[in-house]
Amino acid sequence: MRDPYDILGVARTADQPEIKRAFRRLAKKLHPDANKGDPTAQDRFAELNSAHEILSDPEKRGQFDRGEIDAEGKPKGFEGFPGGGQGFERGFRRGGFGRGPGGETIFESFSYGPEGARRSGHGPHDAGGFDDVISDILGGLGGGARGRRGRAGGAGGEVPRGGDVEIKVPVSLENVIEGGPVKVHLPNGRAVEVKIPAKVAEGHRMRLKGQGEPSPFGGAPGDAYVVIAYAPHRHFRVEGADLRTDVPLPLALAVTGGKVRVPTLSGEVELSVPAWTNSGRTFRLRGRGLPKAQDAMGDLFATMRIMLPEERDPELEALMTRRQDGTI
Prior knowledge:
Blueprint: H1 4-8, H2 16-30, H3 41-55, H4 58-65, E1 88-90, E2 108-113, E3 116-120, H5 130-139, H6 143-149, E4 165-171, H7 173-178, E5 180-185, E6 191-196, E7 205-208, E8 224-230, E9 237-239, E10 242-250, H8 251-256, E11 258-262, E12 269-273, E13 282-285, E14 300-307, H9 314-325
Parallel strand pairs: 4-8, 10-14
Antiparallel strand pairs: 1-2, 2-3, 5-6, 7-8, 9-10, 11-12, 13-14
Helix pairs in contact: 2-3
Keywords: Chaperone
Protein name: J domain-containing protein
Pfam families: DnaJ (PF00226), DnaJ_C (PF01556)
C-alpha cells in the first residue's frame, strides 16, 4: 500500500483539520457510488479510508511516523489476515490486538452492496467517526445514495452545511471608541465593509450569516464571525482596558510646574503637573482608556519623561555648570 500522506495528498506536517478536509474531498470523488463504471473504485476508496484511519488517529499516526506500523496499520513484520471476498477488512490495535480489554471485537469490516456502505465489528470507541463521515459523503452523491441512506448527514435529511470561520480584524483604538466601518476579507476572497458599534471591547464577535466556508456537499455555507482585535498604536500601550503612554515634559516645567498636553483616543487634553516633577512620575486620567464590561471605561496612565530643549541653551548650560561647581 502507498504512503498514507501521498494517498491523501497532504504534507507530513499537515494538521488534523487539513487531513479531514483532504479525506472528505477525495472520499466524495472516489466513493464507489460515484464511480459505478470503474472496477477499481472500491479498492481505491478502501485505500483512501485506510490512509485516513492512520493519519486521523494521533496514536497511529505517531506509530507510522516512527516506523512502528506499516501503511496498512499493521506492526512491521506482520503478515496480514487470511481470507478475501467483497469489501475489505482492516485490523488495528486499541488496548490489545484483535479484542479489547472486555473481549469486544475491535476489527472493522466495510463492504459495499445495494444498501451502500456497511460497517461491522467496530470497537467501543469508534462511534461518530467513520460512520458520520460516510453519512456526509453519501449525502452529497445525489439521489441514488441519498435514497439508500434515507438521510444526508443530518436529522430530517438535511445536507451538511459548510464550516463556520472566525476572522480576526485589527481595528484602530480610535475606531474602537468611535465605531465605524472596517474592511473584512472573507474566505471566498470577497472583501466587505462591516460597521462596528462604538465602544466595543477586544474579542467582540459579529456574525455574518452565510459568509463562512462553502459546503463540500452542496449544502448551505457556514457563517463567518468577525472578531475585534486591537491594532498596535504609535502612542499607546494596551494593558487590559487601560492605556499607557509617555509624555514629554520640558525641563523647565519639571522644575517650575505647569500644564502639558496629553494625547487621548478622543483628542489631546491638558494635564497640570506640579513643580519638581521627576521623570517617570505617572498620572492617572480616569475613563480615558478602552471599553470594559457594563459600559465602563478603563483609564489612561501618562508617564512623564523629562526632555531637554531641542537646541542647545547656553544659559541653561552655564546655570548647570555653576550649580555643579557649587558657586550657586
